[in-house]
Amino acid sequence: MTKRLSNKGFDVQVDRKHYYIEEYDTLETFIRYFYQIDQTRKLNPKNILEIGIGNKTVSNYFKQHGMEVTTCDFDKNLEPDYIADIRELPFEDNSFDVVLASEILEHLPWESVDSALAELRRVSKKYVIISIPHATCFFEFVIKFSLIKKILKKNFLRLIAGMPLFFSKINFLNGEHYWEIGRKNYSVKKVKNALKKHFRIIKEFRPVLTFNKFFVLEKIRKM
């Protein structure tokens, strides 16, 4: 049964239909699904909290593979297990082995990000995985042949060169993103410093062929 909590007066930014159209499930989106699933599995969690469920592709994968997953979203129309604001989560401290929040934080004003990170840290037993849009102009080359996997133990080699859009200030006219990594006033360093107040950064990377940056985080135990 879905449980509903206060949404602090904010409006839903994305209509439910957005997650069920052909334009949403692009190659880039499925690459992002893969990395959410892959990075979560590598942590061997007993239970998972997914915040921001979209069309439930990721949570359904976990369920079909026998993993315990709880879903939470701001939008009641997506039918999550819990309807709540990421800044005020309805869970006890240390409730989940892994908390996954992909493409969520940029939907909050920057001044609200710290409180959201504090909540992610609070409800996580140990790990949090987040991804955030990374606004860059880049060239990317992917090289794949059998010897790469045999010798280097990798599926492919990747060469990339890019430049953040530091000269471009994000415009909230679309009613969705307040900020993105790489935009004016939102450098990678600034975002990482915000994360480091609550977590140790275990891993950070940009998935192949996408405009996103992933962070695998371990919560800091505060005295």
Description:
The protein is an alpha/beta fold. It has a single domain (3-136, 177-219), classed as 3-Layer(aba) Sandwich (Rossmann fold), CATH 3.40.50. 24% of the residues lie in helices and 28% in strands. The chain has 5 helices and 10 strands, in the order E-H-E-H-E-E-E-H-E-E-H-E-H-E-E. The protein has helices spanning 27-41, 57-64, 110-123, 146-152, 188-196; strands at residues 3-4, 47-51, 68-73, 82-83, 96-102, 124-133, 136-143, 157-164, 199-205, 212-219. The protein has an 8-stranded mixed sheet, sandwiched between helices. The protein has a two-stranded antiparallel ribbon with strand order 7-8. Helix 1 (27-41) crosses helix 2 (57-64). The longest helix is centred in the N-terminal third of the chain and has 15 residues, at 27-41. It is globular and about 50 Å long.
Task: Provide a compact summary of the structure.
This protein has 5 helices and 10 strands; from the N terminus they run βαβαβββαββαβαββ. It has helices at residues 27-41, 57-64, 110-123, 146-152, 188-196, and strands spanning 3-4, 47-51, 68-73, 82-83, 96-102, 124-133, 136-143, 157-164, 199-205, 212-219.
Average pLDDT rating: 85
Helix content: 10-25%
The CATH class designation is Alpha Beta
The counted number of beta strands is 10
* Distance from first to last alpha carbon: 36 Å
The tally of structural domains comes to: 1
- Alpha-beta classification: alpha/beta
Q: Which H/E pattern describes the elements?
A: EHEHEEEHEEHEHEE
Largest sheet data? 8 strands, mixed
Radius of gyration: 18 Å
